[in-house]
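User: Can you predict the 3D structure for this chain?
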Amino acid sequence: MNRLANSQSPYLLQHKNNPVDWYPWGKEAFEKAEKENKPIFLSIGYSTCHWCHVMEHESFEDKEVAKLMNDNFISIKVDREEMPEIDHLYMSVCQAMTGRGGWPLTVVMSPKKEPFFAGTYFPKTGRGNQPGMMELIPSLMNAWNNKQDDIQKTIKQVNEYLINSNASVPGSNLDRNTLDNAFYDFKERFDNEFGGFGSAPKFPSPHNLIFLLRYYKIFDEKNALNMVTTTLDKMRLGGIFDHIGYGFHRYSTDKNWFLPHFEKMLYDQAMISMAYLEAFEATKDEKYAAIVEEIFSYLIRDMLNEEGGFFSAEDADSEGEEGTFYIWEFEEIINILGQGKGKEFCDIFGIKQGGNFLDEATGQLMPKNIPHLKQNLLEYASINSLDITELQKSIESSRRILFSERKKRIHPLKDDKILTDWNGLMIASMARAGRVLDKQNYIDTAKRSAEFILNNLTKKGRLLKRFRNGKAGLQPHIDDYSFFVWGLIELYEATYEVHFLEKAVELSSIMIEDFLDNDNGGFFIGPKEGEKLIVRAKDSYDGAIPSGNAVAALNFIQLSKFTGGSSWEEIGFNIFKAFSNKINQVPSAHTFMLTANMFGTESPKEVVIVANEKYPEIKSNILELQKSYNPHTVYLFKSMKEQSKLNQIAPWTETHIPIDDKLTFYVCENFACKMPTVDINAAKKYLK
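Assistant: Here is the predicted structure, written as structure tokens:
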């Protein structure tokens, strides 16, 4: 075993038996590189990354490659999910140097952490124009030993690039034009046939769909709604959705959502379920609520630890091959379900005797099948003159049988580390779904997860990043605070337990102290006492998930509405200014920033619901009020028996009292309230 054997990261532990003399990121590795005058070979990946597994097998498990690496480099392995600031910095270098990025990320740098070479996947030996490790390492060492002037010139250029690209100068406020430009970009790239944007590969990018739903609501733009519903409908039909066990795979390698990259990530489930939930709120179409419940059934069944924390991911690979766990032979399904139900299932889910997808490497038809739907069950029933209720029962029965059979297979690796940021996203989605769908078990699950984070992933009031095997550790990043605070805010609106709002305020204050750029606005990725890199980076772009700064802006604007404190809103709007030049260059790459901006500018409202005490009927009344799709609204509940708690954190609500001892609604905009009413229909009209 190498030094990675002492790690808690499942990704690093995957490499503990490599013949490469790996170090974890830390002081020891850099001091040894300095002492021996060796460059650093930095490899960044994550546990469920297919091509990371391929490079490990082809290169890092190979003794010839390992000898070359051990003789010439100090080699460092980093789990990108544990150290996102390091990943972000060096990924930006790779993209600048090569025009592309991805994982595994390969960077060669000086002992002072200064990169002079970057790339992604490298096999053992070269293929076509791509060098292999056996050619690459001698070439790099020749440069290190004989061309130091060239290396230092490259290092200087990279350092200047990093400094310039992270030197954000505040711009002006965002306006309607920015929102419109994002919408028109999506409209131009929209795939009318299969949904989504552009061609293959296709990523769900649910934050884009949430932006379009809000844009539809505010500006009554039906095209925006159509883009969302078409995309969500087609995603649920495709192989990107696990039709047997539920949950969504990472992305689709083709344009019609059929052939997925099979890993399942917690953050995808969180954000995709949010998009379906908001589509349900906007359209009242029950099928979107049902899909949310399917996703949650997968998460609660397979991704939840006993104490309430959510695991991170499930691998794409099992038995050494991608997708093996999820695909089926035609005869296998017939044998399991019998001729009648088996043929029905195969017909509906596109299962063919010769297989239904091509091997990417050979282009040959595989003898296996990915379950997918050509059309929804209602259309299938109509075309084939079947009773939809009976068909649904039959398919559900078959699904359960196949699921039980699939459980006997060798399962993909589960990355069982618990990350604060991804749990924050999951808490936000599940708490909100519990409120919108009136499902108390979702609210309870979200509460347990929040309590797990607060009990296990805090130290002296500050968050930690990762929990595994009973141990918590690693410095937090902006996403940990932003996403977890978002979860706490959603939990407050699902439970009206004031301590969730208090904790959101407390952690947001720590965010300001540890991460805020006081000069130019916005938040740094890492804390002020964190890892010292070439630059202290900030980020505004949405990737697979919204940027930490965008979620921070939304949180701070919401906190200003909850508490009445204008300083929160000021920090939120300064985030928009800090990145406005970048946002205006590519608005559609900043959709969650635009969503946050709309919350702050497009008629946001505060609703205070007051009663003498909590009683069961209150919940149904509040849910009735919230049925209307009003995404730019915060809701506070004030029980006169517990008023001191809310008055303390939201002093502007002190004068809000019940009328005639009845449940009373105050609908306000910028803290100026309309006449209080005990009539819920009047309150609904105020909200419109």
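The chain has a mean pLDDT of 95. DSSP finds 26 helices and 21 strands in the chain.
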